Amino acid sequence: MPISIETRFAFHLPAPTDVLLQFEVAAIPEQTILSSETRLGDSEHCARVPARDHIGERIWIRAEGDFEVDYRARVDLNRQLDTLEDMAALAPHELPGEAVEYLFDSRYCPADDFQSFVEAQFAGTTGGARVAAIRDWIAEHFTYTPGSSTTETGAAETFISRKGICRDYAHVLVTLARASTIPARYVACFAPGVQPPDFHAIAEVFLADPSRADGGTWQLVDATGMADPAETVKIGVGRDAADVSFLTSFGPNDFRSSSVSVKKE
Amino acid sequence: MPISIETRFAFHLPAPTDVLLQFEVAAIPEQTILSSETRLGDSEHCARVPARDHIGERIWIRAEGDFEVDYRARVDLNRQLDTLEDMAALAPHELPGEAVEYLFDSRYCPADDFQSFVEAQFAGTTGGARVAAIRDWIAEHFTYTPGSSTTETGAAETFISRKGICRDYAHVLVTLARASTIPARYVACFAPGVQPPDFHAIAEVFLADPSRADGGTWQLVDATGMADPAETVKIGVGRDAADVSFLTSFGPNDFRSSSVSVKKE
Amino acid sequence: MPISIETRFAFHLPAPTDVLLQFEVAAIPEQTILSSETRLGDSEHCARVPARDHIGERIWIRAEGDFEVDYRARVDLNRQLDTLEDMAALAPHELPGEAVEYLFDSRYCPADDFQSFVEAQFAGTTGGARVAAIRDWIAEHFTYTPGSSTTETGAAETFISRKGICRDYAHVLVTLARASTIPARYVACFAPGVQPPDFHAIAEVFLADPSRADGGTWQLVDATGMADPAETVKIGVGRDAADVSFLTSFGPNDFRSSSVSVKKE
Amino acid sequence: MPISIETRFAFHLPAPTDVLLQFEVAAIPEQTILSSETRLGDSEHCARVPARDHIGERIWIRAEGDFEVDYRARVDLNRQLDTLEDMAALAPHELPGEAVEYLFDSRYCPADDFQSFVEAQFAGTTGGARVAAIRDWIAEHFTYTPGSSTTETGAAETFISRKGICRDYAHVLVTLARASTIPARYVACFAPGVQPPDFHAIAEVFLADPSRADGGTWQLVDATGMADPAETVKIGVGRDAADVSFLTSFGPNDFRSSSVSVKKE
């Protein structure tokens, strides 16, 4: 059952400006791109570079004036879905090099400070059961509140305010997982159930999978409850939102409009 | 003229604990390891994983009780040294994928917030001249003050307090370079001139080098003035100090002692 | 030459809610209220309490539904105006009890952290000349930028971003004065030159005045340059913006509109 | 049953420096000072000023070199002790002017950010029962950990780390009470049960007392459980620790030693 995605966004650059875009479905084994079409406005320069962990690509443009992005894709998902609660954690010393830095603090995820909290609040759970307990605790105690946070808000503020949007939910989940010594990263994605329809963000944790060469597998987890991992289409990953924005402008940029549509066919 | 390095440190683990170590000279083209010897205490498990950007290795151990690390190495440096002031910046859209995320905010380097400051303070400079101006500004306005900061201190606090140690100087330089759209990373290293002798930290910036395949080269910069890039031996790199600690313990750890000696032969 | 003030603002309380208001000209010796008229919407309860330092009054209301405030006043100012640059500071041990706590850190003014900065940046100045130097430094290095800050922004963030509105300029001035061991407070006021017309905020510092019983006098200082101390009408004072809001709601409140007009007759 | 207090502390001032001291038992109706003796080292200047809310005094000294403070007092307590759980809150609009600003955010107590948390966590409680619930929640979830915090630590960090000392426990209690629209202040005090013996800090909340002229009364609350309100001797009060330090130095100060002894006779 393919998922069809359409997004369009427009902005205005008052002067020649470098802009970094990352909005396309990542070409990775777990998601087959049946078709896709990317239309970009006119630019002086345009270059593609691989994105973090070789998941997806970033597009550099240098342009001026009005700029519009128009993208559509059809994707088949064949993601391995395990039962989170049944999955074990890897001991830290079993983690592959690529997963190690997802244990560390990042801009919006100061995990170290939360060690006492997670030990007390989620005592008795480990691995996937710990992650599920964290996800359920966030879902129960936080209120999804558009407008309550900004692009500067980090997991510490959200943990206190108990309010936020998908970005904030993902940051708190990533933070509490790392504080539990479970590697966790931030995933920009498309998902059909998101209301209002928009780019979405969820978390991904690295848990044991004896069938894999490196001993582990990344599993998607959404504390907002809006995205079903089976139907979530990845754009890119990062340590937190600082790493995966769909638009980063290195100079003034007047954002004009955006629309996102994600549908199961 | 080889550089000889000796370091020894000891800690006590009250219970079986995972510990991540990164203290050895990185085996990379610009530094030739003439000889080296690593002695680790007894451990239940011991594994090596590649470190960030494939610069150096991290060692996982799982151990209990007293643990001692004893390391010595002789290294020849053949680093390409350019004149910082003469180097141009790459335009953002010319940056290779690996360098891109060194533009982004990280745990201790909230670069975005400093854009107005760098534009006003360092107006008229670009590229290597901008980095040199940042380095000199820090050297002039900050006081090297052991004890004035903690492992929680970030570049924003240091920018205000105007005090810190090598870690803090590097964080501010990295932050102001990124705010200038110049990729910058944090480098853990050994260097002969450091007083008191200890592990050292400096910054590294990515500037244009037409002779390289990816168009750019990383250049070491030390705002403390203690380390000469020609004599600096790299251990590892990261987005900031959150990524490259010589010892990270995933459980209680009583640190006992450490000594570092770095000499030109 | 009297100053005439008109302000009107309206809000909607979806449920019975306590609201604290402070918007009237303070009845203090330096400003003579020629006439004034306060019209408040209907409320279940309404009480007046003295405001901080006995400058002005706060009005408690408990109300529900639409609420409108309509206020007009004519005021004559007879404030003692000294030349800031000529005024000496009091030594800390000469400060009266009331002024002492205006040396301490408050919510948005973490003055302690700025001691090294002020010593280096404003070396060679003391007392009123120090305050004038701080005011001029802010005016030169900061950009008045509506929308760049929120009600959560403190002086540390503004010092870094170099952007803000009157509230932020006042916070930075208060912070740097306190870091210089000069008592400083935050003043909510009306002033004719403010563009766009709105409630205004400036700083006030306590400097030596041998003619006064307690040895000192408060002097208004506006780093935005918009308000002339000779024409500034005080509403209230506090340690920072946390203490003097024109409207504080202890429950949901939909703010609807406000207008402020301040004119020299 | 009088309480006898002895404290001695010493410091060294490398240059002539202003120092603010507040370490003596406050002369207020609820505590009768049977005898007291204050011995201060030699100073160039020495002045007493009333402290905040007219509770206790601050002593300004200007001195150089070694300085020693030696203080002893015998105190009888006749504090009105009500059962916290039985006390009602005053509605905000019933609060006297002096209590109002103890609702506002202060340096270490960012209460506004905690409104959603207190509403959810302590739903169904009001007034003294709310305060008792907050006190018990802190006592259950936090670990008294000397060395885990610094003089820069605020209630937000402590709320996350779940660790601290008396100062941190008091800050969290004050913050959560204010977030519940209950005025709360920080109290520096002496108390017999404190281990290790030292200056102590607890919180005080303003609750309804129909027998009082202003409708309310301040009640001591100690989330650490170490100080019995019946045996707690007040030194001074403030919005948080920024306001009531036993020693604030306006210049370099090498602290040498201190001892505190508090005994029931």
Q: Mind sketching the topology for me?
A:
The structure is a homotetramer of 265-residue chains.
Chain A: E1 3-21, E2 31-40, E3 45-50, E4 57-77, H1 97-100, H2 115-121, H3 127-141, E5 143-144, H4 155-161, E6 163-164, H5 166-179, E7 184-190, E8 200-208, E9 216-221, E10 233-238, E11 247-250, E12 254-264
Parallel strand pairs in A: 5-6
Antiparallel strand pairs in A: 1-4, 1-11, 1-12, 2-4, 3-4, 7-8, 7-10, 8-9
Describe this entry's structure for a reader.
The structure is a homotetramer of 265-residue chains. Chain A is of the alpha+beta class. Chain A contains five helices and twelve strands. In chain A, strands 1, 2, 3, 4, 11 and 12 form a six-stranded antiparallel β-sheet that branches. In chain A, strand 5 (143-144), helix 4 and strand 6 form a beta-alpha-beta unit. In chain A, 49% of the residues are buried. The mean pLDDT of chain A is 96. Chains in contact: A-B, A-D, B-C, C-D. The interface between A and B is medium-sized, with 33 and 33 residues.
Based on CA atoms alone, the radius of gyration of chain A comes out at: 18 Å
Number of domains of chain A: 2
Q: Gap between N and C termini of chain A, in Å?
A: 6 Å
Q: Report the structural category of chain A.
A: alpha+beta
Describe the sheet with the most strands of chain A.
6 strands, antiparallel
- Provide the CATH top-level class of the largest domain in chain A: Alpha Beta
CATH domain fold name of the largest domain in chain A: C8orf32 fold
- Number of helical segments with 4 or more residues of chain A: 5
What string, H for helix and E for strand, traces the elements of chain A in order? EEEEHHHEHEHEEEEEE
The general outline of chain A is globular
Say how many strands of chain A there are. 12
Which runs of chain A of at least 5 residues are low in confidence (pLDDT < 50)?
none
**What share of the residues of chain A does DSSP label as strand, in percent?**
35-45%
Multimerization status: homotetramer
